Amino acid sequence: MKMSRTLVAKTGREVPLHGDLVEASALLSLAREKGLNINRRTLRLYADTGLIPRPFVRNRDDGGRTGYYDPRTLRLLEAIEKMKSAGYSLRDIKEFFRHLENVAAESGRDPLEVKVEAVAAIFPGGIQDGGYTGPSSSKEPADLTKISLWREIGGAVVSQMLRMGLECDVRTIAEIRASVITEQGNEVTVPVFLNARSVCYDHPSREDDGDVGILTAAYVSELTGKVQEPAPAENIREWLETSYDISREHFIVARAPKTSTDPKPLIGFCALGVEPERLRAGQVRLEGPYVVPAYRGYGVGAELFRKAEGMAREIGARYIDAFLSTRARNAISFAEHFGFQPCYFLYEARVKLVKPEAGEPDPLAEKSRSRYRLVIKPIDCAEELEKALDLTAKVMRGAPGFYPVTAEDLEKTGLVYPMEDHFNAYLDGELIGTAWNSTGSNRVYVNVLPRYKDKSAEAQLWRHILRHVRTKGYAEARTEVVYERSSRRRVPASLGFNVITVIVCYRKYLHKE
Fold first, then answer.
1. Given pLDDT bands bounded at 50, 70 and 90, which one contains residue 371?
2. pTM for the structure as a whole
3. How far apart are CA 341 and CA 199, in angstroms?
4. In this structure, which CATH number among 2.30.40.10, 3.10.20.30, 3.40.630.30, 3.40.50.10170 belongs to the domain 147-339?
5. Under DSSP, is residue 208 helix (H, G, I), strand (E, B) or coil?
6. What is the end-to-end Cα distance of the chain in Å, rounded?
């Protein structure tokens, strides 16, 4: 990373750099000017414990030796102080940073940048290049009619429209498109003017399912940074009509003006995830909004969100949660602009499911001596389901983002026994845990009584659900873990789970409590 030869402090003075590094005394000076209570002893402690990168020891011009730091260490110091002020111990912060280093290793990114980025997303306002900026300030909404753009292109466009005998009143024109030649030599048309009031907002019909698949895949690709292939129309149809939390009535799409020449009339969407147990507590989940790039900047995304917010109020929700990766900076900025604030965060972890070759040992095979005493079986009746739900409620009580589910909630999804993706585990006749795989996905979850956490019984239950997912053809499994300060979960790590991203729950309250 190439940097300038100086850093400028708030006082306006320049701090000399040694190559791309800054001397320890200069780093401390900059830290004090930002209000951080850090001295040499603290700096050395942070480096010794691994909270910040160790300094590079180099010779000084006067013949002595001193430590030099990456200038970005200042941003990391701000992040550490921010977490300390929120009640986290140095041990908590170190454990958190260790997970972020795994994220960086998985994604091939700079660990220092990943750490600062994560803290910026978790705390309001975040840490920016210039330091902690405080809560984000709202900006004035953009001019939806783009009058300035109209004036810039008006002369040429209007004269051409008049020659063609077309209407040229800005108040009635829905869209103006320009012909553009791409670098590859392809000719495409893009909108250069859009009257946002001409966009239609409604619920998707069955005929739209293919386009919905394209939009949702583009949305996931933008959030994760990985290309997501669109799901077939029949899969989208099943998702919208049989899903536990998503339905057509809670899914809003934006349609391009009727005058558009775009072959795909859907230009954006926004949806609410409505789960019975969460709605009882007043929560709905926000998915989107997403607008195709060519139609951004006209207020379509804002209008989609306002309609989703109105729908949430109508069904009785008290707050909306949006779950966003710390890398989704555009989505986070949009959420903060509309009043969302970070509430809690969780890790998303992944494990590869390797199929053993003939004659090779299975890494998911049972290994515990107690495996003959542990009985794992599918949930095959309402009584078993009630036991599983009671155990989950007992284990997860008080955890952020947990809402107790009832059997009646699940029955609304067309519950059929035996539940092929849900299992109970009994040890010597006692129910000690439950495991399940979310239908239609590779996500797995395990809950065991506290006295069996990180014990062989929990490991066996994890292996069982992972083998179940592997038999369904998945090459990997995923799970989410809400961050617990005192948690040191060894079993998932021993099975190969690696943290791949940090998800932040952003929340907006619709009514003051």
1. low
2. 0.69
3. 29
4. 3.40.630.30
5. helix
6. 48
